[in-house]
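User: Please predict the structure of the protein below. I'd like the answer in C-alpha cell form so I can feed it into my own downstream comparison script.

Assistant: Understood. Taking the following sequence of 76 residues as input:
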Amino acid sequence: MTHTIAATERLRANEAVERMARAAHHVVDHAAARAEALGETRDAWVSFAGQHIRNRPLSSVLLAAVAGLLIGRLLR
C-alpha cells in the first residue's frame, strides 16, 4: 500500500512540475514576443528620427538645444 501511495504522489508531483514548466514556457514566449515588438518600435523611431534630422538639420539642432535647456533647468 505504501508503495502505491508513493507512486501516486510521485505522479502528481511530475504532473505539477510539467504544468509549471508549460506556464514558464508560456511566460518566456510572451516576453520574447514583447521584446521583439519593442525592438521593432525602437527601430521605427530611430529611422524616423534619422530621416527627420537629415531633412531638417537646423530645426533638429534647435529642438535638441531647447530640450537640453529644459532638462538642465528641471535637474537643478
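That's the full C-alpha cell string. Residues 2-74 form one domain.
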